[in-house]
Amino acid sequence: MNVFRILRFKYGCFLGIMLLFPNYLTGQELHSSCSLNVKVAVVDPQGKPLAYVNIGVLGQSKGGATNEEGILIFKNLCKDTYAFQFSRIGWEADDVTFLIEKDTSILMVLRESGIMLDKITVLGYGDKLGKNTIKEVLDLEALRSTMGFGLAESLKQLPGVQTLNTGASISKPIIQGLHSNRVLILQNGVRQEGQQWGSEHAPEIDPFLSTKIQVIKGAGSIRYGGDALGGIILVEPPPLRREKGIDGELHLQGMSNGKLGILSGQLNGNHSFGNLPVSGRIQGTLKNGGNLHTPDYFMNNTGVREENFSWMLGTEKNNLNTTFFYSRYFSILGILRDAHIGNLTDLTNAIERGRPLSDGAFSREIGRPQQQILHEFFQWKNIIDLQNDGHLEINLSRQFNRRKEFDAHRNFGTLPTSLENPNILFEITTYRGEVDLEHNWNTNFHGHIGLAAMQQVNTTDRGSLIPDYSQWTSGVYYTLKYKKPTSLWEFEGGIRYDMNRLKIDDLNPKLQDFKQNQFQGFSGTLSSVFHLSTSGFLVFQTGSSWRTPHVSELFSEGVHHGSASYEKGNPYLVPERAFNNSIHFEWKEGKFKVQSTAYYNWINQYIFLSPQREAVLTIRGAFPAFNYSQTNVSIAGLDGNMTYSLNNHWDFTFQAAMVKGRNVTGNDFLIYMPTNKVQLFTTYYLNAKENATHSFIRTQLTHVAKQGRVPADFDYALPPDGYFRLDIEFLTHIENKIFSDIELGIALNNATNTRYREYLNRFRYFIQEPGRNLVVRLRIPF
Amino acid sequence: MKNQFFSINLIFSLLILFSFSCEKDTEGYPEDELELITTVSITFTPASGAAKSFKWTDKDGAGGIAPVIESIVLAANTSYTISTSFLDESKSPAYNVTEEILEDGYEHLVCYTSSGSAPSVQITDLDKKKDPLGLAGTAKTTTAGNGSLQIILKHIPDKKSTTPCSTGETDIEVTFPVTIN
User: Fold this and answer.
1) Which terminus in chain A has less CB density within 10 A, N or C?
2) Domain for residue A763, yes or no?
3) Complex ipTM more than 0.85, yes or no
């Protein structure tokens, strides 16, 4: 009598296949209640035995590691329910619960971290984040259905993430009420050094190159930096192919709104040169879209182009695993013409109108204003396996970011049609080096010690928004984790010291007194996990992080045409320091699955744009003036979701988020804090949902409330009304002779063509949000 | 073995070369060469007597040193012809932008708004499409007193609109204090 169980991981991807069957060979005689033997064999997806896998029994002192054959035998077990915990560095940890009634053999299939696709195994070790880190992983299905809209829009699926938009084409993630330089983005473990400081600067990453995106909330992982006040986004490309041969996949997408088309593909290969195995991948994405439309009119000049390319090459020999990774992101983004404002009078006129002057028409042409962004990333990653002692990882990288902005402004005469001379041109080149040593003190204590150093040069070739500068940062950290398989508690702590030297290379006499800036400080986290039972756990986390004022906050000065404001930096700013506290709860029992995070973050010397009484008088008229200032703020919030699986066919998920930001010193609210949001997802599976090739129809009903928590006399217009939005998605898998499994997705976004405006869109003064959009997408693996 | 490593090194080197060869340093760009308007000058010419010019100047652009604004002083009960010009005085010699505005006149409109005792301005010149342009005009002062005159240069206004001065994009917006003696 075999019991065949398929386990579903948290978000629906298959993690392990479990075979549980009675041991016929040792006979069927009855045992007394506490003399049962359980043989546990652990293998990888290819069936090779896995040694050194720690297996513990929750709440009991039993446990150990598997031997060379991947086997561990538990003796003298009682007739009871046991929660086995499997863990090995570099491999996905898993918990499985069994009712043991007789002598039993268990075959456990473990997968390496980051693995998602059946055909591909890992080359390298993913960053393993335990339960101590409060994180949310975007499941692959949700990622694939949204990646055509960009990284931030994909992340928006998660309960704790919202987006700050500039029109329909620029979107950046907000985590725990914070964005831009307070959120770190890591590409394959290296922090992205782009131009994230501007609120209209979108992340420079192609979501199609990754199969795993996760968000770490709060100051969760100091390994990645001590300045992630809001959170960290990890974008990880899939592991390289390990077996000989070639595979690949092709993505085709079309969207009705903007007549946008996407073509993306990748090719993976592995070949042995003698006894040296080499794995590689090339990947690329092309995107082309024209003017988007709202229910009532077209938005002029909102087209988009993207041309992205990446490759990865790696090999493994003895204990060394080395990988080269290169990615190049290039995009041209049209900015809504009607949002480019000459002065405050124009802004008042535009807000009064609330819509473009004309209904516009469809066009693929992208004129001024526009942005052209290039981001190049090159990484050389080495992992040395120190056997039982852990791993040594050495990461070297170079990044180059070029940002061109073309204004629609010229003080007289016709607009230059050529795009040869941008009004703003920044180039930023960054070299980073990181060394991380993972050390296993014993089976219960795991430590990481690491060093990071960075050198960065920014040149402002056109425009004068920020000066030329060079920057050097260095950091050192140590983290220690305690996890005993039998204990209900897990602990992790970390401390980090960073030093940041900033040198202004500008000849402007006003800046001469501030040429050298140096900032330094400690950051740290402490977290603990408490297992309530086999079905749920709590995470308590507290930490402190700090952030150096950015050059733009220190030295920028000028008119911001998107918002008709005059912004002035403050060279006397000091670093801001955050104190993050959160409690996270996860529970999975029967048909229910719940997760929720509550947080309270305090930030001392929070840097923000403070409105000034006196407007700045210019020849273009008077502009409201904003100076970078500092204040103490508190940001508190609650987010989470709850899923009820009625049966094999129906799933209901309720998701909600709220954030409250207070300027404590000024006794006022903070501007641009996310609005209360609730979502209801109803999914009907046409076949069994555990089936890897399942088909479903999902409706997503979103309600966003009107923002009531706004600062007094700060904004140009009142927050827009709340709204409901309905999205419908259909997904199915097609099998045929040539391609084994084609994924077809059809989605209708904003299905009811609702007219609405979003508080977190900086162009809400001028324009509605986009109307109905039919998305058809195909994923063809081969 | 050696050969294999060599070939792999070669592949890596080629890929790295390929990756970076497309990046050229863009140094050597000229400094910000977009034109600027620093000065609005308005000249009042009475039927008899000398013409008077008044300037609104901000040579260092937005921020920095505050603009220098001259007061318009005119005689009561007098008719004037007006000509307005826009200059870039940050360059030496000063660059007259007015001619370029005149050339693309259909894309521009100079609007005048007066308050208090300041005289209202009637536009007398037309662009190539026979729509008002506003670089030239007339004004007639009445009784003595104080007021202000606002001059707005609009870019791509809708000249067919009933309120053309509230359309288009504002390139220049300055206000002169006015005294009528």
Assistant:
1) N
2) yes
3) no
